[in-house]
UniProtKB/TrEMBL annotation, chain B:
Homodimer. Gene3D superfamilies: Phosphate transport system protein phou homolog 2, domain 2 (1.20.58.220). The gene is phoU. Keywords: Cytoplasm, Phosphate transport, Transport. This is Phosphate-specific transport system accessory protein PhoU. InterPro entries: PhoU (IPR028366), PhoU-like_sf (IPR038078), PhoU_dom (IPR026022). The keyword 4Fe-4S does not apply. Its main location: cytoplasm. It is found in: Cytoplasm. It comes from Billgrantia campisalis.
């Protein structure tokens, strides 16, 4: 029995799959009729979904389904790509992220992003975390220390690095580097954290640490996770959106999607069947 | 979404298809065995055939072993494949169904043991008409539940769920007439009690068949109808809720 109320929202051209009814008040991000193309080739088609605040939402789907494209659109990473054309709207806490008064660097502070391969800067562990804070300036040394410690703690890395904060970030293992990158993002106090396959290059133990971290961060911020690992989506997310060929096929509570999906396309994908 | 009986054979991994197929096949084999156990236990009683009753009693071990084998296979699939959606529901339904089939096996051996004591006693047994009638009824329920499982047929499964109510009624009225026999002749109390135990076992078989039918609905619709009022269940409510 599904407990969550479902509401099917009509999309202009074709009927979309069931879409969970997240109220505008409970959503951090609202995506409406988003269509995006690379050099005229459509990558996202009329996507409409709301991403709930302080929850983990997973985007799943086969390669090329548009999940990473969607994630990147959420903090305007397509801005500099001239081949990209788009229409529709994305609102963060009710505000259009493409509005002229929105500064893109401030948007990216509020909506942080972590990529598949850990990308620490070639500097010390401490400086990596302090980097964004220094850019903004105006913080005393002591305050900086406090925030660096807080961010490393929040990223579950503090205990492992507290005695070697001056060591190069490159001396850390892959899993530690990824948590360092998350600490660097957290240090500037984002509201949303976008994670693009954050654990796909990590060993199982490091993967579990990242997943544990995702769970613990949910009390503070909204998380959006792109993953190819279905079990990972099932383990950590509260809501799952299945995308296929640029369309939102199904979006619902993760428990429902993984035990009783509404549509055959979703079922076929998550159970490894031929479409 | 509703699934069909060939849903589980469309995986990219053919090995996985085979594993799930094998689970279904083994469940059907076990179902066939327990159905035969019930049929033979009742036949032994009616024909006064002690050898057949002993065979049923001894065969229970085979039923138990099948449960262990199927459970093992389910554990392996869960550990290795981490099934989701309808695959997960299939494995869960099979695990639950084997538990009920095993219990039906226990009821068959209970009937056989009571039949043996009645045969050894050599007294005239009363209430056989009721036993025959209820046993035919619950065997049909069991067969239908297994067929529904094999064909993913929720309509047939629903019929089984509704049948269980009439078995309960028949059981109630059979018990009342057996009570009358006991009141009429106190020497009959022992044998009539044995027949009552047999009827009780048959009524339990109906309950287990009802459970099997409920698992079919869970498997196909993803809807758990255990503890729901059967009167509120029909195909329409299922499609609204599923």
């Amino acid at each position: 029995m599904s407990v969550q109320p479902f509401q099917t929202m009509p999309v202009s051209r074709r009927p979309a799959g069931p879409i969970i009814d997240v109220s505008p008040e409970a959503s951090s991000l609202e995506i409406e009729n988003l269509t995006l193309a690379y050099a005229g080739k459509p990558a996202l088609r009329e996507l409409t979904l709301r991403i709930p605040r302080q929850r983990v939402t997973a985007f799943i789907g086969p390669s090329g389904c548009g999940k990473s494209t969607l994630l990147r659109a959420l903090n305007r990473l397509h801005d500099l790509n001239e081949a990209v054309s788009w229409r529709g709207s994305i609102r963060l806490e009710g505000q259009d992220i493409h509005a002229p008064e929105v500064a893109v660097d401030e948007l990216r502070r509020r909506v942080g992003m972590v990529f598949q391969a850990p990308n620490p800067f070639p500097m010390s562990i401490y400086e990596n975390v302090a980097f964004g804070l220094r850019l903004r300036g105006g913080l005393s040394r002591r305050r900086l220390d406090d925030i660096v410690e807080w961010a490393l703690n929040a990223a579950a890395l503090w205990d492992e690095v507290k005695d070697r904060l001056r060591a190069s970030a490159w001396s850390l293992s892959g899993g530690q580097q990824q948590r360092l990158v998350i600490a660097r993002t957290l240090a500037v106090r984002p509201e949303v954290l976008l994670l693009d396959e954050p654990a796909s290059a990590l060993d199982p133990i490091s993967t579990l640490k990242i997943e544990e971290l995702i769970r613990s961060l949910k009390s503070q911020l909204t998380l959006v996770l792109v993953t190819h690992n279905m079990q990972q989506a099932a383990r950590v997310s509260d809501y799952t959106a299945f995308l296929h060929e640029g369309e939102l096929v199904e979006y619902g509570p993760t428990d429902d999607v993984f035990t009783n999906p509404r549509l055959a396309r979703t079922e076929n994908y998550i159970t490894g069947r031929m479409a | 979404m509703d699934i069909t009986s060939d849903t589980h054979s469309q995986h990219i991994s053919r090995q996985f298809n085979q594993e799930l197929e094998e689970l279904k096949t083994q469940l059907m084999t076990m179902g066939g065995l327990v159905e035969q156990q019930i049929q033979e236990a009742v036949k032994a009683l009616i024909d006064g055939d002690s050898r057949l009753a002993e065979k049923v009693r001894d065969n229970d071990r085979a039923v138990n072993e099948m449960q262990l084998t199927i459970d093992d296979e389910c554990t392996r699939v869960l550990a290795r494949r981490q099934p989701a959606a309808s695959d997960l529901r299939l494995v869960l339904a099979v695990i639950r169904a084997t538990a009920d089939l095993e219990r039906i096996g226990d009821e068959a051996s209970k009937i056989a043991r009571n039949a043996l004591s009645l045969i050894e006693n050599g007294t005239q047994v009363r209430g056989l008409v009721e036993v025959r009638h209820i046993s035919e009824h619950v065997r049909k329920m069991l067969r239908d539940a297994l067929t529904a499982f094999a064909r993913f047929d929720t309509e047939l499964a629903l019929q089984v769920v509704h049948e269980d109510e009439s078995v309960d009624d028949e059981y109630g009225s059979a018990m009342r007439s057996l009570m009358t026999f006991m009141m009429e002749d106190s020497r009959a109390i022992g044998p009539v009690l044995s027949v009552m135990w047999i009827l009780r076992a048959l009524e339990r078989v109906g309950d287990h068949a009802d459970n099997l039918a409920e698992y079919v609905i869970y498997l196909v619709k993803g809807l758990d109808i255990r503890h729901m009022d059967p009167d509120e269940l029909d195909e329409n409510t299922l499609s609204r809720k599923g």
